[in-house]
Amino acid sequence: MREVSFLVADDSPTIRNLVRKVLETKIGANKIFEANDGSEALNILKEQKIDIILSDWEMPNVSGDELLFQVRNSPDWKGIPFIMMTSYGGKDFIMTAIQNGVTHYLVKPFTAVEMEDRIRKSWNAAAKRSTGRFASLPPHMLMIKNKGRSFPARIIDISCTGALINMEYVDELKLFGEYELALEFEAKNPLEQWAISPIYGTAVRLETDASGMHLTSKKCEVALYFNAKAMDKKVEKKLNDLIKWLASLAPDAIADK
Fold it and tell me: Which of these, 13, 73, 157, 247, is most buried using a 10 Å CB contact count?
């Protein structure tokens, strides 16, 4: 990631220096811009091509959430991965950050390994969206069932062990929550219609889709891990057959988590 340009916004010089050191030693970055607050960050964005933003939440003049709002509402910047660094780790804050458009978040104190992980995930997700990797999947949906209610989601990526989905955010959706899932895939031949349920899964990641996100959007991406122990053998066979069928149509759309 040597050619990837980073913008680090934090009013603490110590934090900025630590982040810079991780970017240089763990990521190999050599294009790093620093801002003391959100106002300086916006000026840098106007003058430089930035690929990834790492920003503190609480800053003078223009705060991290105000910077995020400006980025997500700009036609030129709205697709930039945005990683929020904060000392707030509560569920309410995390849900607010996700709804406001962060790609990932880091709760202080965080390790160099955690920071590297968020950066690589953010960059890889942005790269996948830009290449249209999942465009060849047939029409497909997943229903999440919780306490008698059902919520539709679009499948982005799927394997035998889990799936990445895009859906409207709802309050019932919780990180590490366990849900009953129902898969539906359409085929050109009606006899090849796939309907597989029940599958039981856990939400192991909950984040925004950085493409086109803005403050009022409620879209989110959820990574689900399938619970193999709770899966009926017949359901497991159907799921495995589905993955093989999808692989024959669009091999690049199938990836193990």
Answer: 157
Burial class (CB in 10 A: 0-12, 13-18, 19+), 208: buried
More confident residue, 10 or 190: 10
Taking the C-alpha atoms of residue 80 and residue 45, their distance in angstroms, rounded to an integer, is 11
Pick the residue with more confidence: 241 or 6? 6
Same structural domain, 160 and 116? no
What are the Cα distances from residue 86, in Å, to 26, 27, 58, 97, 114?
21, 21, 8, 10, 14
Q: What is the residue type of 252? A: D
How many residues are present in the chain? 257
Residue 71 to residue 67: CA distance in whole angstroms: 6
Final residue before a domain boundary, out of 88, 113, 131? 131
The domain that holds 222 is classified in CATH as 2.40.10.220
Contact 30, 5 (CB under 8 A): no
Q: How far apart (Å, rounded) are the C-alpha atoms in residues 176 and 111? A: 22
- pLDDT for 38 equals 95
